[in-house]
Design brief:
mainly alpha
Length: about 140
């Protein structure tokens, strides 16, 4: 959160970034997600995950099916078509980011639910995004 606020202030003040800082941030950002996934996998407890399976499945269904079903018609009504509609679909129906796991863990919460949600949405989003794209293609919106 502090980093986001710092970045917004930096951008608003239009302070140029030194080249070495740009390269460092670029290198670090390329490793952030893989490192987060490694941390998630290393700390994943299957016994705890099965005890949280029902809420994790609810999160998965909401993220991959309910949100797109609720908001894609609104996006179409607002005039989004082709690549812009695909962008909306990607934001609505993609997997839960690993940062939710990292944030839950860093704030002292049990991270089992967020880890399960990340794993389930990552797996099932390959199928649901394909399904949503197929539906949009049939409706001739993309």
């Amino acid at each position: 959160i502090i980093g986001v606020i710092s970045g917004i202030v930096w951008a608003l003040l239009r302070i140029p970034q030194p080249v070495i800082l740009k390269r460092s941030i670029s290198t670090f950002s390329a490793t952030a997600t893989p490192l987060g996934l490694i941390a998630l996998g290393a700390s994943f407890d299957y016994h705890k995950a099965f005890s949280k399976l029902k809420p994790a499945l609810v999160c998965t269904v909401l993220k991959l099916l309910v949100f797109p079903a609720a908001f894609l018609p609104l996006a179409v009504f607002l005039g989004f078509r082709q690549d812009k509609l695909v962008s909306v679909l990607t934001m609505l129906g993609s997997s839960t980011t690993v940062t939710s796991f990292t944030m839950a863990r860093s704030m002292g919460h049990e991270s089992t639910l967020s880890a399960s949600a990340v794993m389930l949405t990552t797996f099932f989003s390959a199928f649901t995004l394909t399904g949503w794209l197929y539906i949009l293609k049939i409706l001739m919106l993309v």
